[in-house]
Amino acid sequence: MSTVAEQVASHLLKIKAIKLEPEHPFTWASGWKSPIYCDNRKTLSYPEVRNYIKEQFAAVIREKYPQAEVIAGVATGAIAQGVLVAQELNLPFIYIRSSAKSHGLENLIEGEYKAGQKVVVIEDLISTGGSSLQAVEALRNAGCEVLGMVAIFTYGFQKSVDNFEASGCELTTLSNYNAMIDLAVKTGYVQESDVQRLKEWRKSPDTYK
């Protein structure tokens, strides 16, 4: 029986939410060259995948954070996932913008919540953790107690590990870079000869060419 990490990785590769191109690197918005591109929003277009991820998110939260009172999604990629999880758990949902609105109420956090409430944050993808932890900080500044964050996938950069540790925010992910590479080799999605290159990229993504 496959683990959740393997099953999620399998889904992501199958629907091409994750693309691996060691010979033809993608260019991220940051300017980094990368042999991998991950777009977890594609999971929403596949009911089987969408439901599996929703159920696994809910299972993690029931096990680790049974005291959760609110589910929060990080805009924009995790809003839909967060709504699905909140519905599954019959909990209120809110979401955190990347920046406050410049008009109207100028909200940074959208939805109904109260200071002191226990919140679990849903995220779709963890790279360095910067934008994800900004959402955590916004919730804390609003008086909420952040129990932890649950995400679909992480690249596992050391920088993200350090950032989450420094913030005191527990991170749980359904799948990860190592599980994805192992499965990609097993299924012939990439060759064994590509593995070292893929692993080297994660160690130093800013200098990869």
Short description:
The protein has 209 residues and is an alpha/beta fold. The chain is 40% helix and 22% strand.
What can you tell me about this protein's structure?
This protein is α/β, with parallel strands linked by helices and 209 residues long. The protein contains 7 helices and 10 strands. The strands form 3 sheets. The chain has a 6-stranded mixed β-sheet with strand order 7-6-5-8-9-10, with helices on both faces. A hairpin with a 5-residue loop joins strand 2 (26-27) and strand 3 (33-34). Helix 2 crosses helix 3 (79-89). The longest helix has 18 residues, at 47-64. The protein is globular. The protein starts with a helix and ends in a 6-residue tail after the last helix. The mean pLDDT is 91.
Helical coverage, percent range: 40-55%
Number of DSSP strand runs? 10
* Biggest β-sheet description: 6 strands, mixed
Order of helices and strands: HEEEEHEHEEEHEHEHH
Class by helix and strand content? alpha/beta
How confident overall, as mean pLDDT?
91
Determine the strand fraction and express it as a percent band.
Answer: 15-25%
Low-confidence stretches: none
Number of helices: 7
C-alpha-based Rg, rounded:
17 Å
Strands side by side in the biggest sheet = 7-6-5-8-9-10
* Overall spatial form: globular
The separation of the N and C termini measures: 37 Å
